[in-house]
Structure formats: structure tokens, C-alpha cells
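To the wet lab folks,

You asked to see what we're planning to order before we commit. Fair enough. Below is the target structure as C-alpha cells, and below that is the sequence we designed to fit it. If anything looks off to you, flag it before the synthesis order goes out.
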């Protein structure tokens, strides 16, 4: 095929080689509708399809976010209630989701299997072009918002999945500050609106406006389709044209992205809910720096941001920390918009410091322009940025998905889609410009002399959320008072019918419309993760032979079984300090520069590996790094230096790092409180769960908070003593992926010292609390419940994996997400226990009741002999995520330490593939759990916790 030829009414506009990703890029245009297609033809068995639309908001109601949710709730060809959920239950997808940005919405799917890929693509095409939500208002009401009133005596509430998702998002003061900053910078165009939806404004969206926006933006002419992988283009284009585009017309666009003219807005103050006031204020500065296609300039600002604020010794961050005016500062560029902007966010300061901080930031930038940025640091950071760009390690995310997101923005804005993917020319030019004043000129022209800038100060207020809830309650009372008795009765009746609709099931005929795989399509063999183990000079080695294109990956695991719980906390504290403190050989600046120059990545963590067959476990200090083969000696020398010659003499540097770690924990607990709640609920079930709580949960947070308030000399001394004990030969296991090159291993074995220690397992007593809550300043909650099952799951692990899918995507999804309005929910076996959780939940008390009724649901399901076919397929899909070299190695290491063999994985797969309702009945006793074996932890605001009543015995606070 060549340019100018047509395939199923698509004309080929160009075919270009893309050497950087080993691909051929085909660009095509649909002759009738002018829909655009990009195919990245690559030798990748995993195939990706993504269809996107430019969606430009004109208010804060989050209409396109609600549309993103709603179009996946049934379509003309597939009239099941929630095909998205059914596909999550029953496909082998490697990615299935949708996402909304400030100016576009994308629907991507991905699978290794062609039949599955075609099924997913068909369902998504029908979802976006023929959704039921534009004729069935209930879908909009469930996903967007509705008034809930079940009794005429009560006052109404506002419920809705997106409504509650965004209440959670707006609980983050950082998110609030960033959103308000965009509103300032782009006050006269679409970027000034909240694309996700402001919870205060979402209830202003009418169904009529929702439908109008669908028709205006979800048309074929506005569609951008991106394909990736080894697929049959003719087959794919035939489906797209024959089944969809040929039946549609060209639609002239009536709206376009509009550029914001330069504005200089004064500082805007906003408030957020907090439990304390001191050192909680955020100041966010924004500067619009150009256009989306200024690729080189945008990459240059990413480099500038890293040089100025990545490390505590970076020039801007250091100035702020040394001033004592704030505890942290970050700098970044958002280049996924039509007009990219630089954001400088100051964290943990106080309102009275605003003028001093503004002056300090300006003075520091002026000094940088006058004296120049450190070129050695810039070279090192640029090398590291280029390494990561070329490595293209996206973890378990499909490469095609990332390429689609990178290409879509540029293409939708009228640029070349490949400019978002290829980087070599940009980095080559940035290196050349190191010899000029290019970077200093950018700082002067776009930051110091900006004509398009603003700032936001987010100020904490104690009790703000309580007052907001009281105001909402009064508003609901007033709304009800405005209704006539007949209208109140109508609303109650509507809610009755709405709940009936939510709990209704699809008919067999409707279910049959959804395409699915057969069990015969699935191999009985799980994916193999191949490695070999051997002893080398008294050290266990795990070795992988994968092709790495010249990159070497290494993880050092140091056994911590002899450490007490308190010592484990100290070990975890070390992970936040190592590589960020000076050594005997280099000061912190020089060490950071060398790390970026010679290494692709370097990280420290403490992990717990559960033994597959017993309640035993292993705790390990993990030191992971990657480098180019030619840099292996230099990379190891740096790791060696950090492990054996770190200095613990600068207490202020340590204190800064610890305080920043505390702030990061607080941000994580607000944004992902279910993780906090799960750890706390499980912590009294077994010893390994107690360890996790001490390492990453509320117990660890208390430890960090205490140390951040008073870093005693004795504590530093204890840390240093522990540091001297850890990194010895007796404790060490080495994991390596290096294409058979053993230079790195030889260097490690030569340098690691003997410790002459006998490692005896420490006593680690369990926590005992059973019914707790953790109060946070948030508009939304997380309800977690652990059950100490008292049974060995290793014999039924595959079956429990299927039950996880069944409960998460059916019972809990229906009762907690669809009906309860929570953004997410789930069930998971954990060791010999299991756990339930909800995410951004408006009613945690109800979720706890739902958990307690699991047995009834499963018993009813067994009685009806539910066909488990789809759950079987979906569970198999969950067990086979995509693995980059790094994630494959991490997964293999985890299996090694947990004692999971290929035969055990094969047995799990057999259990899944042969699961029946009869076998499900055998698991029912697990869910008739004794209340004495239940542990509860609710994370949320004070009012939500109080509604849980006697379920909560004690309340903890951050």
C-alpha cells in the first residue's frame, strides 16, 4: 500500500518510518466524515485501539466527565446496563478504561488476543456512537447526580458517582489550588473551567444540556482514532467504516479551542478544610509559556524545573528551605494543553509568608539568570531524561496506550501526532543549547517578565467542611420546602423506581448481545516468567535473560528478619534519606548529579513478601537501580558509596526530608484513604499485616510525625547504627537482568562486606484494635473491613481470585458504586484473610452493612447456579498483565521470595478455568464470618465517621 490509496473508504495520507519506536506510522482520513486514523505498525502482539474526541467545556458542571462514564453504560447493539463492567468481568484486556482531560476525552482498549481486541473495539465504537445514555436519563442520574429521597419525612441528599469522585478530588488542597490557578490563568477560555466538575456546580447540569453536548462533540468528524500493534488494518478499518462511519455524515465543527490572551491576575485566596492551621498553607504560581507545538521549549522548561526544584539542594528549593518560610516547593510544566504552563507550588507555609516567598522566588530566579544555571547538573538531568524517554518503561500500561495519549493532544491541536512520541531531535537540540544562554533567557522572558501569570493561595480553615455540610443540609431543606407535597411524593416514587432500575438485571437476550471469548480460546498454561537462581560467593542470585537493549537492571535485597517493628520503621525512614544525604566522597549536590548522569533510576524501599503456603513472610530492604551497560561500574560505585559511606551529620537536611515525607503521606491518605484503611484493618489479623502497618500505615505516619517535630540526636544515632548493620553479605540476595553480562555482579560480590551476623527472627507483636476510624479533612470517606478467615487459602487460591472478581465487579459494584454513589469499591484475599474497601464513598456506614451481607448474596447466587463463564475469563485476564522488563523482574522476584512456583500458578489457573457454583458453595462458610474476626477501619470526615455509630470504637487523627 502507498500514499493516495484507499482502504474501506479511508485514504492513506502518509506512511512514515518511526525508528525511535521501531514502527511505521500510517495516517489516514475517512473520505465521508473526515475522521482521522493513525496506525503505529509495530511488532507487538498487544494491540491497542483508542478513539478520542475534542471536548471543550463551557462551565464547571463536568459534563464531559459525566459523559465519559455514561456512554459506557449500554448502547444500541449492546443494550446491557453496564458493558464496561461486563468487559472488566469477562475479557482478557490488558487495558480497558476511559479518561477525560481539560480539552479531550479518550476511550482506549487493549488486548493480546485478536478476537478479544475486536470484541472490545466493537463495544467501544458502539458506546461512543450509539449510547443509551442520550435516551435513558437514569444513566445520567446514576453517573452524574440526582436527588435521593427515599422517605417523605427525610430531607433529600445529592448522590452520583462523578459527584462523589470529584468531592474526593476537591478534598486535596493541592488539587484545589491547581484548579483555581487554571481558572486564573485561563479565565476567558475553556481551560478556566473544571473539566472533571466542581461538586458545587455539578448539580446545575441538566439532562437536556448533557444530551446537547453529546451530539455536539461525539460525532465522527470530531473523532481521532489511534491503533497500535501487530494487527490486520484492513479488517479493523472495515469494521470502523462498515459498521459506523459509513452511516454518518460530515459535521462541520462549530467550536474550537480558543487561546487565552495574556493576563496578569492578582493573587487569589481560596480556603480548604483542615484539622490544623500551622504550616498548611499552599501558594501556587503559574506562568503560561507558549504553545503546544513548542516541543523544544516545553522540554527545556521540564529540564529547568528539574534543575531548580527536584532535590532539596536544587537552587530554588534550597533557597526556600533555608529561608524557613516553607517546608517544600515543587516546579513542573503541564504540556498536555493547547497553551502549556509552568507551575511552582509552595507547600506547608503560612499566609503571612506570601510576600516574602514571592520576593525570594523572584530574587532566586534573577540570580540564576544573572549567574547561569549549573551546566554539569543540567547535563546530568538531561541524560537522565533522555534515558527514561528512550527506555519507554511504562510498567503494566500498554505502550500503545501511552503512544496514543502522546499523539492525540498534538494531533487534535492541529500538529503532527508523531511529534508527541519522538524525542531524539529535541534532546539533541537541548544538548547543543547548553552552550548558550537559551535556558536563562527562557526564565527571564517567561517567568520573570511574564505577561501571562497569576497565583493562588490556599489557606486552611478548621471546620470548613462541617460548615459546608451544614449549609448543604439547609439547602436541601429549602429545596424540599420549595416542593409541593405532590412533588415530594413524586420524588420519593422516582427514587423507588430508580433503585428498582439499578438493582434490575439484564435479560438473557440482552446479555447474549455482548461478544465474549470462549474458555476454549484460553490456554491452560499461564505466562512463564523465566529466571534461574544460583549461589555466588555465598550470595543467592536471581538472574533473568531478557533482551534489554543495553540497559541493566539490578535489585539488592537485604534481609531484615532480625529487626523489631520499631527498627523496621527506622529502616523505612532510611529509604527516604539514602541518596539524598552527602557521603564521605561527595556532597549532596555532586552525588545527585552523578546519580542522574550514570543511572536511569535508583530507589530504596522496604517490602514484605508473603509466603505462599504459610503465614510466614520475609521483610527486605530493596535497593533497585538501572543503568546503561557501559555505565555499570560507575553506577555500582555510586550505590556502594550510598550503602557504606553516607553521612548522617546534617540534621537540617534530614529534617527537611522527613517533613516532606510526612507531607507526602498526608496527601496520599487524603487521595487514597482506602490504602490507609486496608492496612489498619488488617494490622491485627496477622504478623505480616502488622509489619505493613508499621512500614506504611497510620503507625508509620505517627512515627514520622513524631520525628519531624523533634529530630533528637539519639534518634539519628540509632539510625546510623542500624544503617551500619544492614548492608552485609549474610543478608543479601541479588536480582539481575543484564543479557548475560556479569561485570555488575562481580563488582557487587567483591565489595559487599561480611557482617558475621546470625540473623534470628525478631518478635513482632500484633496490634489489637478491631474497630477504628481515622479522621481526615475530606469531603468523602473510605470504608475498609478485614476478616480474619482462619483458613489456609493456598489450596483454593485460584478460586478466591475468581471470588474477588465476582464480588468486586458485581455485588459490591452494584450496591456501593452504582447505588451507593461511591467512586470505587473492591474485595481482595490477603494472605489468610480478606478485605473489603470503598473509595471516595459518601456513605461508609452503608458500605459496612453491604460487606456483612456478602454471604447472603453468594448463597443466592449459588442457588441460582449463576454461569461463571465471564468471571473466569476476566480473572484469567487479571492474572496476565503486561510486563515491562522492570515489572517482569519485580514480579519474578516476588514469586521467588513468596515461594510461588510455575506448577502452583498452573494449579491456580486450573482452579479458575474449572470453577463452578458447586465449588463456590464450598467457600460459603468463609463468608459467614464471626463478628469477633472482623476488623473495621473507616477513613473520612468527622460526620461520616459518626454515622457509623457502634461500628467504630475509637477515632484516630492525623
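Sequence we intend to order:
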Amino acid at each position: 500500500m502507498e500514499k493516495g490509496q484507499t482502504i474501506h473508504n479511508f485514504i492513506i495520507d502518509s506512511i512514515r518510518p518511526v525508528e525511535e519506536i521501531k514502527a511505521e506510522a500510517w495516517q489516514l482520513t475517512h473520505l465521508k466524515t473526515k475522521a482521522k486514523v493513525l496506525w503505529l505498525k509495530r511488532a507487538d502482539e498487544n494491540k491497542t485501539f483508542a478513539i478520542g474526541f475534542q471536548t471543550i467545556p463551557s462551565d464547571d458542571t463536568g459534563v464531559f466527565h459525566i459523559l465519559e462514564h455514561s456512554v459506557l453504560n449500554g448502547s444500541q447493539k449492546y443494550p446491557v446496563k453496564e458493558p464496561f463492567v461486563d468487559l472488566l468481568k469477562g475479557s482478557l484486556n490488558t487495558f480497558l478504561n476511559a479518561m477525560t482531560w481539560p480539552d479531550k476525552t479518550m476511550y482506549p482498549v487493549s488486548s493480546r488476543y485478536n478476537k478479544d481486541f475486536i470484541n472490545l473495539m466493537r463495544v467501544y465504537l458502539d458506546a461512543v456512537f450509539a449510547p443509551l445514555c442520550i435516551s435513558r436519563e437514569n444513566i445520567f442520574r446514576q453517573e452524574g447526580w440526582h436527588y435521593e429521597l427515599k422517605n417523605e419525612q427525610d430531607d433529600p441528599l445529592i448522590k452520583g458517582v462523578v459527584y462523589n469522585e470529584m468531592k474526593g478530588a476537591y478534598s486535596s488542597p493541592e488539587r484545589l489550588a491547581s484548579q483555581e490557578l487554571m481558572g486564573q490563568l485561563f479565565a476567558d477560555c475553556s481551560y478556566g473551567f473544571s473539566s472533571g466538575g466542581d461538586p458545587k456546580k455539578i448539580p446545575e447540569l441538566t439532562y437536556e444540556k448533557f444530551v446537547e453536548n453529546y451530539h455536539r462533540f461525539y460525532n465522527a468528524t470530531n473523532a481521532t482514532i489511534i491503533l497500535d500493534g501487530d494487527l490486520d488494518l484492513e479488517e479493523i478499518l472495515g469494521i470502523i467504516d462498515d459498521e459506523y462511519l459509513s452511516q454518518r455524515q460530515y459535521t462541520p465543527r462549530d467550536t474550537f479551542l480558543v487561546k487565552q490572551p495574556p493576563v496578569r491576575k492578582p493573587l487569589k485566596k481560596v480556603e480548604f478544610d483542615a484539622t490544623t492551621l500551622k504550616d498548611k498553607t499552599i501558594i501556587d504560581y503559574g506562568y503560561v509559556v507558549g504553545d503546544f507545538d513548542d516541543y523544544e521549549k516545553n522540554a527545556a522548561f521540564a529540564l529547568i524545573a528539574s534543575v531548580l526544584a527536584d532535590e532539596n539542594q536544587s537552587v530554588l528549593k534550597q533557597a526556600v528551605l533555608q529561608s524557613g518560610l516553607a517546608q517544600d516547593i515543587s516546579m513542573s510544566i503541564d504540556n498536555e494543553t493547547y497553551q502549556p504552563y509552568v507551575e511552582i507550588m509552595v507547600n506547608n507555609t503560612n499566609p503571612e509568608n506570601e510576600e516574602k516567598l514571592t520576593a525570594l522566588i523572584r530574587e532566586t530566579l534573577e540570580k540564576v539568570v544573572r549567574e547561569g544555571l549549573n551546566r554539569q547538573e543540567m547535563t546530568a538531568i538531561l541524560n537522565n531524561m533522555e534515558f527514561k524517554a528512550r527506555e519507554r518503561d511504562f510498567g503494566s500500561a500498554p505502550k500503545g496506550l501511552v503512544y496514543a495519549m502522546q499523539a492525540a493532544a498534538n494531533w487534535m491541536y492541529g500538529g503532527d501526532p508523531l511529534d508527541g512520541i519522538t524525542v531524539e531531535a529535541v534532546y539533541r537540540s537541548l544538548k547543543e543549547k547548553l552552550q548558550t544562554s537559551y535556558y536563562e533567557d527562557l526564565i527571564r522572558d517567561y517567568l520573570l517578565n511574564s505577561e501571562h501569570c497569576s497565583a493562588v493561595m490556599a489557606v486552611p480553615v478548621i471546620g470548613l467542611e462541617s460548615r459546608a455540610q451544614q449549609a448543604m443540609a439547609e439547602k436541601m431543606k429549602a429545596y424540599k420546602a420549595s416542593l409541593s407535597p405532590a412533588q415530594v411524593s413524586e420524588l420519593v416514587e422516582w427514587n423507588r423506581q430508580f433503585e428498582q432500575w439499578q438493582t434490575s438485571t439484564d435479560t438473557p437476550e440482552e446479555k447474549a448481545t455482548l461478544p465474549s471469548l470462549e474458555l476454549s480460546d484460553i490456554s491452560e498454561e499461564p505466562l512463564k516468567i523465566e529466571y534461574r537462581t544460583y549461589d555466588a560467593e555465598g550470595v543467592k542470585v536471581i538472574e533473568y535473560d531478557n533482551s534489554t537493549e543495553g540497559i541493566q537492571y539490578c535489585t539488592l535485597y537485604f534481609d531484615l528478619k532480625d529487626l523489631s517493628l520499631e527498627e523496621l520503621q527506622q529502616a523505612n525512614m532510611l529509604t527516604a534519606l539514602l541518596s539524598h544525604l552527602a557521603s564521605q566522597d561527595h556532597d549532596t549536590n555532586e552525588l545527585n548529579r552523578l546519580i542522574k548522569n550514570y543511572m536511569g533510576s535508583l530507589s530504596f524501599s522496604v517490602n514484605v513478601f508473603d509466603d505462599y503456603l504459610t503465614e510466614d513472610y520475609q521483610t527486605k530492604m530493596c535497593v533497585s537501580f538501572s543503568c546503561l551497560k557501559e555505565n555499570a561500574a560507575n553506577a555500582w560505585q555510586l550505590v556502594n558509596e550510598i550503602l557504606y559511606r553516607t553521612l548522617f551529620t546534617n540534621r537540617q537536611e534530614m529534617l527537611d526530608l522527613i517533613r516532606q515525607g510526612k507531607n507526602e503521606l498526608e496527601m496520599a491518605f487524603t487521595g487514597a484513604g482506602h490504602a490507609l484503611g486496608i492496612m489498619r484493618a488488617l494490622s491485627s489479623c496477622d504478623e505480616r499485616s502488622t509489619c505493613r502497618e508499621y512500614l506504611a500505615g497510620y503507625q508509620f505516619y505517627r512515627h514520622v510525625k513524631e520525628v519531624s517535630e523533634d529530630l533528637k540526636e539519639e534518634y539519628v544515632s540509632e539510625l546510623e547504627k542500624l544503617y551500619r548493620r544492614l548492608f552485609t553479605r549474610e543478608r543479601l540476595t541479588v536480582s539481575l537482568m543484564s543479557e548475560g553480562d556479569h561485570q555488575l555482579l562481580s563488582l557487587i560480590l567483591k565489595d559487599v562486606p561480611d557482617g558475621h551476623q546470625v540473623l534470628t527472627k525478631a518478635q513482632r507483636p500484633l496490634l489489637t484494635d478491631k474497630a477504628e476510624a481515622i479522621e481526615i479533612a475530606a469531603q468523602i470517606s473510605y470504608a475498609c473491613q478485614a476478616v480474619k478467615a482462619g483458613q489456609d487459602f493456598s489450596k483454593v487460591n485460584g478460586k478466591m481470585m475468581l471470588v474477588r472478581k465476582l464480588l468486586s465487579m458485581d455485588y459490591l459494584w452494584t450496591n456501593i458504586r452504582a447505588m451507593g454513589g461511591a467512586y470505587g469499591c473492591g474485595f481482595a484475599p490477603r494472605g489468610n484473610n480478606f478485605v473489603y474497601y470503598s473509595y471516595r464513598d459518601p456513605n461508609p456506614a452503608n458500605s459496612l452493612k453491604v460487606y456483612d451481607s456478602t454471604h447472603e448474596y453468594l448463597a443466592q447466587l449459588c442457588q441460582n447456579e449463576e454461569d461463571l463463564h465471564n468471571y473466569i475469563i476476566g480473572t484469567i485476564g487479571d492474572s496476565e498483565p503486561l510486563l515491562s522488563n522492570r515489572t517482569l523482574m519485580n514480579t519474578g522476584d516476588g514469586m521467588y521470595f513468596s515461594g510461588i512456583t510455575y506448577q502452583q500458578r498452573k494449579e491456580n489457573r486450573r482452579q479458575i478455568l474449572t470453577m463452578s457454583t458447586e465449588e463456590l458453595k464450598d467457600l460459603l462458610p468463609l463468608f459467614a464470618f464471626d463478628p469477633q474476626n472482623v476488623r473495621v477501619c473507616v477513613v473520612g470526615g468527622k460526620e461520616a465517621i459518626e454515622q457509623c455509630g457502634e461500628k467504630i470504637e475509637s477515632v484516630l487523627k492525623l
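Structural context that might help your review: The radius of gyration is 28 Å. The chain has 35 helices and 28 strands.

Thanks,
Computational group
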